[in-house]
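Hello, quick one for you while I still have it in my head. Could you read through the record and tell me how the tokens relate to the sequence? No rush at all, and the record is pasted right below.
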Amino acid sequence: MSLLSAGCSSGQGAPRPSSPHPTSSASAAAGAQTSKYTQTQLASRPCDALDGHDLAALGISGRGKQESGKHEPMCHWKLAGQNVSLALDLPLSYAKTMTKNGRVTQVPVGQHKAIQAEFQGICFIFVAVHDVNRLIGTTTIPDAGVSQEGTCPAGASVAAAALTHIR
């Protein structure tokens, strides 16, 4: 898990405006404005981590279903036969447990580096944004009979879209 500490920096330039909703119709029409939240704000309402534009771009219909998890609330979406869950404040100890027996690799997720672990057809992805002890994570499980080939890319896509909304 020491690889996560290398992924804390986003490498992004100046922060974008933090308004939760675009106020200018011109900027909204141009698609230049993305709603920004703190990681803590999104952790309590993870389904807000993907907006309508993200859902359309990923081919997801519906807002997602929020459920209580062991550590934090999480949001579930269905993406091309994959069941993807997103949590935005997972402890490092959870990531260490979930990656312990898997095939672990470092992968890019948006402009961040992430840890990906594949274990028995399930893919876990963990990204550190500001704090290596408070991780953003996806868990992706394919539907029965669906190829496992798209499992990790589906989780990475959801995580990358969510990261665009964290300031």
Observations:
- The beta strands are 65-68, 73-79, 82-91, 103-109, 112-119, 122-128, 134-142.
- The first strand starts at residue 65 and ends at 68.
- Residues 39 and 166 are 6 Å apart (CA to CA).
- The mean pLDDT is 81.
